[in-house]
Amino acid sequence: MRFAFDNSFARELPGCYVKWQPQRVPGPSLVFLNRGLADELGLQLGHDTTALAEMFSGNRLPEGAEPIAQVYAGHQFGNFSPQLGDGRALLIGELVDRLGRRRDMAFKGSGPTPFARGGDGKAALGPMLREVVIGEAMHALGVPTTRALAVVATGESVYRETPLPGANLTRVALSHLRVGSFEYHAARGDQERVRRLADYAIARHDPALAGTEARYGDFLRAVMERQAALMARWMGLGFIHGVMNTDNMSIAGETIDYGPCAFMETYDPKAVFSSIDRGGRYAYGKQPGIAQWNLARLAEALLPLLAEDQDEAVALAMAVINDFPGRYRHHRLAVMRAKLGLAARAEEDGADLSLAEDWLALLHPSRVDFTLGWRHLADAAEGNCSPLREHFTDLPALDAWLTRWQARCAAEAAAPATRAAAMRLANPWLIPRNHLVEEALTAASEANDFGPFERLLEALARPYEERAGFERFATPASASFTAAYCTFCGT
Ligand code: AMP
Ligand code: MG
Q: Best of 20, 88, 115 to mutate for ligand 1, by most ligand atoms within 8 A of CB?
């Protein structure tokens, strides 16, 4: 097979990667193929599943592939690691999609690279299917995300606590440039490479800034803006990334690196599921603040480019980083207004945000399911409050809040049915519920049964639509499941 690769990173950024080959696998079989995404990329893949398995395992790469392992650093749980890099991933090539957007095609789990740091370079099937499920759900929910193109079971075992079936994931991203990519060269004092990387990132993600005088500061601002928007989307859906290290934060503003991530069930700002996040650094409610912290690390890496005078550079960087809370608030207000069924009215900004925050404060003590709480608010917009009331223990508090909200709604002309329909496009019926994700991954990796995985994907492809036959996917896990639920790092 021949793909129309155009490998700009490999061409333009020597010193930012090493050329490397995927390790051969003994028994590749194709377990997931994203035909919709392949079409978006203009790939004609055909139906020879043996050939596709050979290709997406790395045994027989498409023509034009130039596999490379990218180098990057990163702050992991607050501590700086000067060299991480693609330990088990390879950038295979870049494609320009049907919309003219450049997309990376990369492997994850294709064997150790010089950056493996003692790791085996492999991935287990379960975590790779998890990346498929959550990534596709995020895409269908309308959140910027990397996506899975294919998963191949390799036919070999990978050893974690127990032997597990191995897999290789093919991932598509707007780029794999991370905050950590800049930190790597900055920490080595290699300003020239930081500059080249920044100019490359600008050409790729913010082409309007290319060649302008103030481009590096404006680029920092553009990355900040994308992250502020992304955090507002995550928070509106109850998504918890779980490992927001700077090497897992994309310059392109996509959600990337689905490891120990999870969707919140009952609303709790302190919710954390990751087994490696014992301190709760990456808890649900902390995510916007962590994004700002990570952006400050990017700003530090860019300082020498921002101005010749370093005091001036620091002032410039601080101005951008200090704007994050305001920009986040702006995006949050837009997300919350859509969820509350309200139109934008500048004079109501403060009141509408309070209305949203007061609603969330009601959810916590009643342990309301975050997704269903919001979804049933759409029913309340049409005068049917009983599905919502069933979720609450403190009914007088709910009623007091509903009165405020209804008064605010009454200030607008929208008919109740119109408002409810709009709210149902902002408040999904389905999210990937943790017990169903686990059920699907367990069936696939322990019993080689991909039925539950496929049905889950089918359900999550249309998350805003209430469809008969999919009720099971909208039902929360038992409280005991959620209390004991713990995700492990995506290895
Ligand atoms: P992550 O937490 O998945 O974002 O990974 C952090 C770093 O560890 C990256 O540099 C990965 O390439 C590397 N890494 C994770 N798992 C493995 C593995 N099994 N073998 C080699 N490197 C790995
Ligand atoms: Mg990572």
A: 88
Q: Say yes or no: 397 and 369 in one domain.
A: yes
Strand pairing partners for 70? Answer: 17
| Ligand in nearest proximity to the CA of 85 | 1
Q: How far is the C-alpha of 117 from the C-alpha of 247, rounded, in Å? A: 15
User: Is 114's C-beta closer than 6 angstroms to any atom of ligand 1?
Assistant: no
> Is the same domain home to 175 and 187?
no
Model confidence, pTM = 0.98
Six-digit token string for 46:
């055909």
Check pocket membership of 490 for ligand 1, CB cut-off 6 A: yes
Q: Is 87 helix (H, G, I), strand (E, B) or coil?
A: coil
Based on the fold, state whether residues 197 and 297 are members of the same structural domain. Answer: yes
The 10s digit of each residue's pLDDT in 283-307 is 999 999 999 999 999 999 999 999 9
Cα 435 to ligand 1 centre (Å): 26
Residues 144 and 226 in one domain: no
Could you tell me if 39 and 175 lie in one domain?
yes
Of the chain, the end-to-end C-alpha distance in Å amounts to: 30
Which domain, by its residues, includes 90? 8-179
Residue 134 amino acid letter: I
Which of 86, 104, 199, 247 is an active site residue?
247
Taking each helix axis from N to C terminus, what angle separates 179-187 and 191-205, rounded to the nearest 10 degrees? Answer: 160
| Whether residue 172 is found in the same domain as residue 209 | no
Query: What are residue 123's DSSP bridge partners?
Result: 167
Q: Say whether 247 is catalytic.
A: yes
CA distance 297 to 428: 34
Same domain assignment for residues 170 and 205: no
Virtual CA dihedral for 282, 285, 286, 288, nearest 10 degrees? 120
Going by CA atoms, what residue is nearest to atom 22 of ligand 1?
A: 87
Ligand lying nearest the CA atom of residue 69: 1
Please tell me whether residues 18 and 155 are part of one structural domain. yes
Give the residue, by CA position, lying nearest to ligand 1 atom 7: 84
Question: Per residue in 152-193, pLDDT tens?
Answer: 999 999 999 999 999 999 999 999 999 999 999 999 999 999
* Rounded Cα gap, residues 432 and 163, in angstroms: 26
Say if 401 falls within a structural domain.
yes
Measured by CA distance, the residue closest to atom 12 of ligand 1 is 87
The CB of 206 under 6 Å from ligand 1? The reply is no
Strand 79-81 to 74-76 pairing: antiparallel
Does some domain include residue 121?
Answer: yes
Domain boundary residue, one of 179, 200, 229: 179
